[in-house]
Amino acid sequence: MSTTFFEKHRETLEQAVRATASRIYWSPYPESPSPRVYGEEANELGRAAFEAYKNSDFPLAADGATGTIGDEVSPFGPSLGIQYPYVPVENLLEQSRRAFDSWRKAGPQAWVGVCLEILHRLNQRSFEMAYAVQHTTGQGFMMAFQAGGPHAQDRGLEAVTYAWQDMSRIPEQVLWEKPQGKHDPIRMEKRFTIVPRGVGLVIGCSTFPTWNSFPGLFANLATGNTVIVKPHPGAVLPLAITVSIARDVLAEAGYDPNVVQLAVHDVNDTDTVKKLALDPAVRLIDFTGSSANGNWLETNARQALVYTEKAGVNQIIIDSADDIKSVARNLAFSFALYSGQMCTAPQNVYVPRDGIAVGDGRMSFDEVADALGAAVERLVSDPARAVEITGALQNEGVAKRIERARALGLPVVHDSQPLAHPQFEGARCVTPLLLQTDANDENIFQEWFGPIVFVVATDSTEHSIRLARDTVLHHGALTLAAYTTDDAIAQKVEDAACEAGVSLSLNLTGAVFVNQTAAYSDFHGTGANPAANASLSDTAYVSNRYRVVQTRWHV
Amino acid sequence: MSTTFFEKHRETLEQAVRATASRIYWSPYPESPSPRVYGEEANELGRAAFEAYKNSDFPLAADGATGTIGDEVSPFGPSLGIQYPYVPVENLLEQSRRAFDSWRKAGPQAWVGVCLEILHRLNQRSFEMAYAVQHTTGQGFMMAFQAGGPHAQDRGLEAVTYAWQDMSRIPEQVLWEKPQGKHDPIRMEKRFTIVPRGVGLVIGCSTFPTWNSFPGLFANLATGNTVIVKPHPGAVLPLAITVSIARDVLAEAGYDPNVVQLAVHDVNDTDTVKKLALDPAVRLIDFTGSSANGNWLETNARQALVYTEKAGVNQIIIDSADDIKSVARNLAFSFALYSGQMCTAPQNVYVPRDGIAVGDGRMSFDEVADALGAAVERLVSDPARAVEITGALQNEGVAKRIERARALGLPVVHDSQPLAHPQFEGARCVTPLLLQTDANDENIFQEWFGPIVFVVATDSTEHSIRLARDTVLHHGALTLAAYTTDDAIAQKVEDAACEAGVSLSLNLTGAVFVNQTAAYSDFHGTGANPAANASLSDTAYVSNRYRVVQTRWHV
Description:
- Chain A is an alpha/beta fold.
- Chain A contains 19 helices and 20 strands.
- In chain A, the strands form five sheets. Chain A has a seven-stranded mixed beta sheet. A five-stranded parallel beta sheet of chain A has the order 7-6-5-8-9, sandwiched between helices. Chain A has a three-stranded antiparallel beta sheet with strand order 3-4-20, with no helix packed on it.
- Chain A is globular.
- Chains A and B meet through helix 1, strand 3, strand 4, helix 18 and strand 19 of A and helix 1, strand 3, strand 4, helix 18 and strand 19 of B.
- Strand 19 of chain A pairs parallel with strand 20 of chain B, so a sheet runs across the interface.
């Protein structure tokens, strides 16, 4: 039983290994929510499954539960009314420790096989997941489907792939023969055992509950660790579905389902995560969220390896362009997409105060700012179409942040306005806010999570590059983009990106946006600047989640 | 120029990659100090080179030096009288930062090529290194040659190999094409740049200055980081020679020699290492030494990745044996070898108080203890032969520790006695001290670094296994060995070793000793217990020393 799932998905795994080596485009999980791909009834079945969760107890047979808990409200309006089992921290930890005792002995093929089957079933339930993600995060349906479904599954598979690749380098047993000249060689048998670290804690965020949690979840599982999944209280459902599927697969494979558990807590309860994070049994923590919380974990959870993705300030350098309209169109989409509630969304746009070269002529700073504002306006002019891009604000905090930004009193390039959602009356949908400022404004050195953009006047492109580099070094960033027709400038920006440790996109004017990364090809985060201490995913992200213990004896 | 060295040594590197995958025996650096291998004059040339260093200024053209410093005394007697350049911390850091600016751009083939050439030259100077190691550490000549020379070079090459293997997985540039159904695919070029972390600090120890420092030194260099090598003030010469060779190779390859620098300080100066370790530019620290200092670094040097090898309690479980004499002979050698001044040397020997099964009969606890004592006595009975095994005590602290152990008042199984060295009158040579105690004695739960062994009475083999496991979990260990003729017991010990995270040697009675590990095959340390937070060497040891920055653009 233990390797049946591994054999079933071996071909997928081998393809994934090749994809991470070549870094070309590849995915086993179609991103199109088309009936031709997922079946004629997939959408309706998914919607029905989601609707059935509402206003009832989530069907999860959680050991050690002492009650129920849950308070999710859709950013598109209605309260979800879903109640999840409440399992006290002590029970979660005790059950995870016990599950670890047997799971750790199952070995790499069993661990990886279980992961691949969980991912396969998650893929089959991508529509159900899409509705769950949409109505917890506020993402538009298409993004909820893609980023919450296939793309998140890709990131999970990617972590499994790195884990498998690294573990499978270690032979199980070898005969070691050391020549002794004329004498018989010294001969030893050596057995190498992959030993996982222990209990892993995966802390989810409210905006990308699956995409940002799957790498840590699957990196831990694939290397033999157990996992306690702690969703953000505002976005439990996607991870509850995930945990439910994982427990089914574990049970079918003959393992303790408590290898994967769900830790739901009240939104005002900060004790649960602290107790979990500081427990000696918890040896791995994967976190996505605020810098304050991420830094707290790095400083205090010293018994664990802590992988964090935190806040940052993503930046755009505009030096020159062939066609400002295609630049502005691409950027406007990046500003509006899921209302900037992406760790990769651009915030600061640097434009020299003396203007830029465009085609054969020049444009002033104001003209560039106006072009950006106009492109946003065009993009959001049809509310019914716009809300599919902007989605809804995940929580009131984002709405208040927009108000705070507006209250700074800076010149407004494009104002944030409510968008009427044709389907959901109470949806918290708005257009992006673009403000104008200059490089001395301290406000640009912090993250304004949400649809808030600063168009920043700089002294020159050289100044823009220095500013971008130093901001990454001191405040962190997940993305940097630049627009230039000058190869020498492009080289300088690339040098600055390497020095600061941030991914760079050059001259994006087409169907790829700076917010997006593609699994198996693009690294998400570098682990080289304050926005994240690790990259999703690479060898370093998995190779320390297990250790090797060897036994040797003479033969 | 930049890849000449890489091409020169490519075949060695490829063989090393294969060796780490197969984990069979392999080495490019012969461990035999035979004239047939290293040349008829190699020994005399090496000795002459060593003698020429004595009582003079070490020939190292160190930038930023403000004076000289040095106070090494051979554990075999004479003061070495070598003066090294003294470079203030500020100068070291500034020079390392400046060297990093160009070195980081050289790329993996240049970094690895330089490493391979340094190792090659170190190998050619193995005799010179042997004398340097002998007269700083107190190792006997044969060990000084092997562990200080070829085996240390092996560990350096091993680190380079893991680094190369991991970095070479990342393609330099790829064309990424995402199908768009009937439309043209989205096409992007993506360039991936290996970006090193910054300045590395390698903190050497007094007993294995090269063996324990080479992994960190070469892991850093091979991944494009610069290195400040800070030797123990009592064992500077081996690392001064190393740094001198490294700087020669760097200069010949056209790089700033300050990529590798030597930081010598006074034995009473604790400021230097603190200043270095806490500087924001220092992003990597490799440390071998006491738990107090290692834990201090882990807790305080938060700006750096810290790899530590600290103290531990290595243990032997004796359950049963075919022939106690071969067991005792093997263990006696492990106790005496370099007077137990090895992080892998056994300290606690667990024997059930009711005795053990031996061959067809049984032996009492006392008989087992006596057999161990007798084997030690036989091994050291000829002082001229014994001192080649025991070497000399590196410092007075070890001698005082033996006195403290004797003062515990425990029954003496074998007393520590001075050994007259036939060649060096003032040599600090002694025989091992074996004491008898039981499992309640708190003294066995700390490291007694030196030739100090406790033969510990336990309730049973089950008790011995539990005791060994818990001691590893709470106090750390680099090695565990067991003697048993019972496969079920062997399995239980192996389970305990996996649970506690420590390497296990079973029934060593021949020419391999528990203290020894073989590069490319045996992992040194697991990184899974308190004795070390990393293993030398594996993927995890190298893969986080660099990051990847990517640049992508449409085509």
